[in-house]
């Protein structure tokens, strides 16, 4: 019995303490990525981001939604590629090799595409179930599914047909896949933050002497980050002002619809 156990591959196990320690780090990293993307739209450096637990959790939730939708598509693709029917395997291969990066591109374009990718994922689930039942009843569909799967499996090596050949290239493939899966949530959180800034139309506004009207972009602790803007044109330049919140005690803030604000297009000066 001990010999049998010794031949089994060891699995990496994390203690509850390690898991509980990793969770806040991941949440903060997702929140930081989201906030960095938000500030980048206005040209504000990420060094101004302060550790604010409630703000980081809210930002992490927004960023995690994008990561969840992307990983939902990926898990559905992998599960389908090793499914029972040939039509299911074909759909999985198409989703994995031809659909994954277009989905990432759509998600990086903003929240408008979240519902589209979600509906597409659930639609594919319904299609897989339907084709699985029809394939058993329709011989011509089964033959077509077999031919389609054979063609796709030849072009894209499917998961159930891979042979484990240890090599440096195989190790690099696994390392690249792990790096990609690790980076996807944070890249999507960054793009989600940036597109959130592009779509923001209601901001807190106040006035300051010698500066004019300012829009509050973020408040971190006792630090207020604001940008000057042009109300009529709904434009801004990549400039920002940082105030201590105590210096604004007598300032009146109004919540107004002033956007979405667009960056002023800089015109090159003639030589």
UniProtKB/TrEMBL annotation:
Residues that span the membrane, as ranges: 12-35, 55-78, 90-107, 113-131, 175-193
Tagged with keyword Transmembrane: yes
Superkingdom of the organism of origin: Bacteria
Alphabetical UniProt keywords: Membrane, Transmembrane, Transmembrane helix
UniProt name for this protein: Uncharacterized protein
Organism per entry: Rheinheimera nanhaiensis E407-8
């Amino acid at each position: 019995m001990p010999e049998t156990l010794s031949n089994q591959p060891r699995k990496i196990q994390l203690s509850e303490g390690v898991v509980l320690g990793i969770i806040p780090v991941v949440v903060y990293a997702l929140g930081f990525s989201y906030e960095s993307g938000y500030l980048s739209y206005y040209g504000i450096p990420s060094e101004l981001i302060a550790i604010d637990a409630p703000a980081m959790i809210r930002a992490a939730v927004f960023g995690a939604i994008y990561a969840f939708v992307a990983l939902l598509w990926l898990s559905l693709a992998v599960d389908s590629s090793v499914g029972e029917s040939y039509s299911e395997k074909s759909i999985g291969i198409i989703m994995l090799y031809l659909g994954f990066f277009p989905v990432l591109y759509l998600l990086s374009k903003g929240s408008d595409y979240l519902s589209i990718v979600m509906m597409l994922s659930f639609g594919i689930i319904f299609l897989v179930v339907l084709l699985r039942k029809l394939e058993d009843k329709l011989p011509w569909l089964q033959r077509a599914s077999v031919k389609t799967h054979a063609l796709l499996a030849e072009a894209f090596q499917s998961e159930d047909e891979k042979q484990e050949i240890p090599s440096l290239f195989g190790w690099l493939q696994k390392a690249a896949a792990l790096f990609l899966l690790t980076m996807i949530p944070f890249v999507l959180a960054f793009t989600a933050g940036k597109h959130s800034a592009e779509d923001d139309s209601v901001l807190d506004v106040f006035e300051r002497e010698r500066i004019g009207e300012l829009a509050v972009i973020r408040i971190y602790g006792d630090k207020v980050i604001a940008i000057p803007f042009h109300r009529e044109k709904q434009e801004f330049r990549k400039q920002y002002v940082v105030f201590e919140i105590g210096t604004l005690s007598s300032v009146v803030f109004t919540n107004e619809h002033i956007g979405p604000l667009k960056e002023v297009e800089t015109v090159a000066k003639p030589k």
